[in-house]
Write a structure and sequence with these properties.
The protein has 300 residues and is of the alpha/beta class. It is built from 13 helices and twelve strands. It folds into three domains: 2-90, Winged helix-like DNA-binding domain superfamily/Winged helix DNA-binding domain (Arc Repressor Mutant, subunit A, Orthogonal Bundle), CATH 1.10.10.10; 103-173 and 276-298, Periplasmic binding protein-like II (D-Maltodextrin-Binding Protein, domain 2); 176-273, 3-Layer(aba) Sandwich (D-Maltodextrin-Binding Protein, domain 2), CATH 3.40.190.10. A five-stranded mixed beta sheet has the order 4-3-5-12-6. A five-stranded mixed beta sheet has the order 9-8-10-7-11. A two-stranded antiparallel sheet has the order 1-2. GO terms for molecular function: DNA binding; DNA-binding transcription factor activity. Belongs to the LysR transcriptional regulatory family. It comes from Thioclava atlantica.
């Protein structure tokens, strides 16, 4: 293995360009003309290759250069690899969604999957049929490190302070609605008094602390009794459907989960600050064509 590595390390790749042309032309002068080199420069390059491999690659037969048996056996594979390398270098930094087989990891809050992923996968089917996506959970405290380490490509989260190594932009915002079972009295009389007098469901993946709508509710002077704190909006809506509890949920998420359920979506008794989500990426990826394409695909 060490011998193989030392052979490669000492190899001047420009010599392989000369080799490929001599293989094609089977003539030193024509190869030199095609490469805009002198015949002596081509001869020197071939001597260096002979010394590198420890054996001749071509034998002169009249004016033609005839490959040796070893050269004839190995050259087709070598030339194929050179063609692949040349193609890779020529498209370096480019991104073709239709041809790409890339896999992207996006850190998404579970609640936003139902909004973002159906649209994203529909767009991928049309634009990049071989691209795959992994939706993963990453703690906010680890988001910057995960983006820097490329363990995730993008992250979606509420606006919050980030280091200078990250970039972010608004993704979408969503108003709240109040979800109740069909026939619930609140839907008929959505007042402050009715809202405050009813027990509620709060949704958060954290085990305690205020949830996102509490900030607006407290600013309006509204307090509520939370009887259930769960981790999923889908669970909250299922519980609301079979009880008198109310769930205050972003409207787009509630509308996506509502079909087939005996639920009513009602405006809150006063306008609450909308939920805002931002898209985050590492500064190193800001001008990367694949990252730019994916960011554009996620935006509404």
């Amino acid at each position: 293995m060490n011998k193989i590595h030392s052979r490669y390390d000492r190899l001047d790749l420009n010599l392989l360009r000369v080799f490929a042309m001599v293989w094609q032309e089977r003539h030193l002068t024509r190869a030199a003309d095609a490469l805009s080199l002198t015949p002596s420069a081509v001869s020197h390059a071939m001597r260096r290759l002979r010394d590198h491999f420890g054996e001749p690659l071509f034998q002169r037969q009249g004016h033609r250069m005839q490959p040796t048996a070893a050269c004839a056996r190995m050259a087709p594979e070598l030339l194929d690899q050179l063609t692949r390398l040349d193609a890779l270098i020529n498209r370096w930094g480019a991104f073709d969604p239709q041809a790409s087989q890339s896999s992207f990891r996006i850190a998404l809050p579970e609640a936003t999957e139902t909004i973002l992923l159906p649209v994203l996968m529909s767009r991928l089917a049309a634009e990049a049929p071989a691209v795959t996506v992994h939706s993963v959970r990453v703690a906010r405290a680890m988001m910057a490190k995960s983006l820097a380490a490329r363990s995730i490509d993008l992250a979606v989260d509420v606006p919050h302070p980030v280091p200078e190594t990250l970039r972010h932009a608004p993704l979408f915002s969503d108003d709240f609605c109040v979800v109740s079972r069909a026939g619930h009295g609140f839907a008929a009389t959505p007042t402050f008094a009715a809202y405050a007098a009813t027990d509620h469901i709060a949704v958060s993946t954290r085990h305690d602390g205020a949830v996102i709508e509490d900030v607006s509710l407290l600013a309006l002077g509204i307090s509520r009794r939370v009887r259930l704190r769960c981790q999923s909006y889908g669970t909250a809506m299922t519980v609301a459907e079979g009880s008198d509890l109310l769930a205050t949920i972003p409207r787009r998420i509630a509308a996506r989960l509502q079909p087939g359920r005996a639920l009513v979506l009602t405006d809150p008794p006063a306008a609450l600050s909308p939920v805002k989500l931002h898209l985050y990426w590492h500064a190193d990826q800001h001008t990367d064509p694949a990252s730019q394409w994916l960011r554009g695909l996620l935006r509404p």
